[in-house]
From TrEMBL:
The keyword Repeat does not apply. ATP binds at T52, A53, G54, G55, A56, G57, K58, T59. Transfers the gamma-phosphate of ATP to the 4'-position of a tetraacyldisaccharide 1-phosphate intermediate (termed DS-1-P) to form tetraacyldisaccharide 1,4'-bis-phosphate (lipid IVA). GO terms for cellular component: plasma membrane. The gene is lpxK. Its EC number is 2.7.1.130. The keyword Electron transport does not apply. It comes from Jannaschia seosinensis. GO terms for biological process: lipid A biosynthetic process; lipopolysaccharide core region biosynthetic process. HAMAP family: LpxK. Keywords: ATP-binding, Kinase, Lipid A biosynthesis, Lipid biosynthesis, Lipid metabolism, Nucleotide-binding, Transferase. It comes from the Bacteria. GO terms for molecular function: ATP binding; lipid-A 4'-kinase activity. It catalyses: a lipid A disaccharide + ATP = a lipid IVA + ADP + H(+). This is Tetraacyldisaccharide 4'-kinase.
Amino acid sequence: MPRAPRFWSRPPGALSTVLAPLGALYAAGTARRVARAGARVDVPVICVGNLTAGGAGKTPTVIALAERLAARDVAAHVVSRGHGGRLEGPVRVDPRVHEADEVGDEPLLLAAFAPTWVARDRAAGARAAIAAGAEAILLDDGFQNPALVKDLSIVVVDAGAGFGNGRVIPAGPLREPVAAGLARADMLLSIGAARAAVETDLPHMLGRLVPLATGMDWAGLPVFAFAGIGRPEKFFETLRSVGAEVKGTEALADHQPLTPALLKRLGERAAHLSAQPVTTEKDAVRLPPALRGRVMTLPVRLQIVDPTPLDAALDALFATKEAV
């Protein structure tokens, strides 16, 4: 996915105004699509999505939900479109067999935490997961996809970026107007230092991405960091927060393929800086196997400051199971 235009994050100006009619057409198309009737399956469907193009923290949120459901003894399976992969599915992701160009980088990462399925047809993916024993479906980035009826929809927003200039693609970063999207959501999760500035009656939780304690001492380590996520700068700041000496950075496009030419250039930059190459967990799964031992990762996990609304919603969805 190309880097977002800079004007998307600025107050509406001449260019976004010129593009606004195209944004209105895009919004109308989204509205028609989400109005379609979806299929209902026999287990709860929990959707994690966002209203903007690009990253907002959906993958860490899905991981956190998978761990939360596992603690409740609920067998949750993830269903994803598999952005960047070529397999249509439904296919269960096996990190020992599949590569990112087959199933996408996010499903490869998610498969380490819960059984994960890639399916262009989300309803077919959910049915395959249920046949394999799923007691809940975690729908990754499916908020604008009408294939399934959702029992709980969580909209994730990057607190720093918010909803940009408030306009719809291509005039802004939104997949649909904020009001229309939040009207279908059950709760909002802001990830960052503070909640995103938006008026809503939804439960509005605050989450933070914190480095995972792995025993690695980053203090003073000279690193060259590269990342192909929605906001690479957040990853670079996280490295600085754990004490790493960030000698150079390379912000890649979201899901950008790590071609041999690009990897050669990144390796040469790291060598020139006498720095250890380091990247995100999501980028690491796109590395060739021969390089995975030479590029370090800094894992992060989502911590929700007050998960009371989420726990109440999960209590309602799984009350029968917990009562058994």
